Amino acid sequence: MARFLVGNPTVVSEPDGWTIAGAETNFIASAGEREQAGELLGQPVTVHFTPVAYDWRYGDGMGQSAATPGLTWEASGLPAFSRTPTSHAYAERGTYAVTVTVEFAARYQFAGQGWADIAGTLGLTSDPITVTVKGVKTVLVGKTCDENPSGPGC
């Protein structure tokens, strides 16, 4: 019996591990195409895994499905805190555990024959990452922090 392992996806966030309530937090999964080679019944076999869907859980009861693993704001050409297909805005301050379940389609090649699809998908869930959500306060001041370094917020 041969066994072919894909490995769990991982998640990163922008900003890294923190955000501001009401602002978009960008999430990116690392789960690209993967290929495993081995032997079955004395013959070479290769299994190719392709991610086809990403199911995000943001830890606050909200989630969404996406067809993309997400991109950094820089790679997307967007400024920080912009909305992306994988971003989420937290309504409340707190600490949240974020995961993504990636659905992989698979196909195999046995003994040098053509590729054949495997029915169904394989769902693998990332380990959670922690995102701490903070609040902000706007304060009107008479001087800049350069002019008054001990002023509010400086």
From TrEMBL:
Domain PKD: 50-102
UniProt-listed GO biological process terms: carbohydrate metabolic process
Pfam annotation, one family: PKD
InterPro entries: Ig-like_fold, PKD_dom, PKD_dom_sf
Protein name: PKD domain-containing protein
